[in-house]
Amino acid sequence: MNKRFANHHWLRGSMAVVLLLLWIVAASAAELKDIILATTTSTVDSGLLDELVPIFEKQTGYRVKTIAVGTGQALAMGEKGEADVLLVHAPASEKTLVEAGIVINYKLVMHNDFILVGPSKDPAGIKGKSAAGALKAIAETQSVFISRGDDSGTHKKELSLWKEASVDPKGKPWYQESGQGMGATLSMASQKGAYTLTDRGTYLSQKAHLQLVILCEGDKPLLNIYHVMQVNPEKFTKVNALGAKAFVDFMVAPETQRRIGEFGKNKYGAPLFFPDAAKAPSKP
Q1: DSSP the chain
Q2: For 254-264, how does the pLDDT look when each residue is reduced to its tens digit (9 = 90+)?
Q3: Which of 46, 142, 152, 260 sees the fewest Cβ atoms within 10 Å?
């Protein structure tokens, strides 16, 4: 009787252990289906990821947790192993992470360009000027300029353009920082009748709600290049390496590149981004 009871008790205990192990395995598998994507706000504000992410999830079974922040913050997340994959647009800053081995599988994805927008009356008279010439005119006339001020790729580009113009706007009353993403910064500039630097994609996607026009475009320094990369699993063992690689592969796949090139054409009459994966391999 005691032996039967002991065997029965042992069997129940063994089953409980097996069920616990199965639950742990299932939970781990579920976690591995989640991918943390740290990206710039422009890929979200433009609507591009709203189109691409559901396709990726359907094709692969992975779930993407998109964290849209400035590129500087996205790169910092990668540097700490807090994201699995990055989609950003600040090549000079990306180079540091590539050379340190923090990110791998570094791929060119697409480009668009930065533009300077402002009120149609153009009080600083920047229309037709180079980017540096336009910023000099804004400073000389003390016209209000809204900076993102958030260490994003757009903010980094803006600071480099001020440097090229030999102007230090920091602390000037006409130079204001939003500390927010591109969409919110455009809205703020529109409300204040101010100038700002934006990527073309976000501007076109929100143009209908803005009292801003394109005043400076086409200058070579305004090129805006996007790369995708995965966080190195050899440095951060908890990252989802397989999921990150799947996302990188998806972004440079011919069909995705075709969709990127078509995105925005029907609604805005022009693409918001231009696919680049077929070009020469990326160099950090």
Answers
A1: -HHHHHHHHHHHHHHHHHHHHHHHHHHHHHHHTEEEEEE-HHHHHTSHHHHHHHHHHHHH--EEEEEE--HHHHHHHHHTT--SEEEE--HHHHHHHHHTTSEEEEEEEEEEEEEEEE-TT-TT--TTS-HHHHHHHHHHHT--EEE--SS-HHHHHHHHHHHHTT---TT-TTEEE--S-HHHHHHHHHHHT-EEEEEHHHHHHHGGG---EEEE---GGGEEEEEEEEE-TTT-TTS-HHHHHHHHHHHHSHHHHHHHHHTTHHHHSS-S-EE-TTSSPP--
A2: 999 999 999 99
A3: 142
